Structure prediction request, 126 residues.
Amino acid sequence: MNALHQEWLALQAQHERYEALALAVKLAAFAAVVLVPDNALALALLALLWLQEAVLKTFQGRLGERLLAVEAGLKSGQAVAAMQLHSDWLATRPRGLGLAGQYLRSALRPTVALPYPLLMLLALWG
Prediction:
């Protein structure tokens, strides 16, 4: 098995792990609504968990970008340097507001954002 195959297997496993972690964050958000008696604290925890999930999904997206590059190289047979996830990301890494913008875009994706406003309404009515 060559290095690109090994990289793909490792990246795919981590990509799926981030999906599981995002689900765990959603479950923690639900638990916060149910278990935290103070509405203000529950809302603060929900906001924090929403941001945490956005960060996880941003990281997952970076892995996905590298997975696509590796897959394109494997499919075409063209040379793609293996094990370059961080070097490639560092070369295009946004700074300051650009990085914050990535996290915000992740937070507003429907698959991330959907439960949080609903849970916040539940926390307010609780």
Q: What stands out?
A: Helices lie at 3-35, 39-76, 85-92, 97-108, 110-113, 115-125.
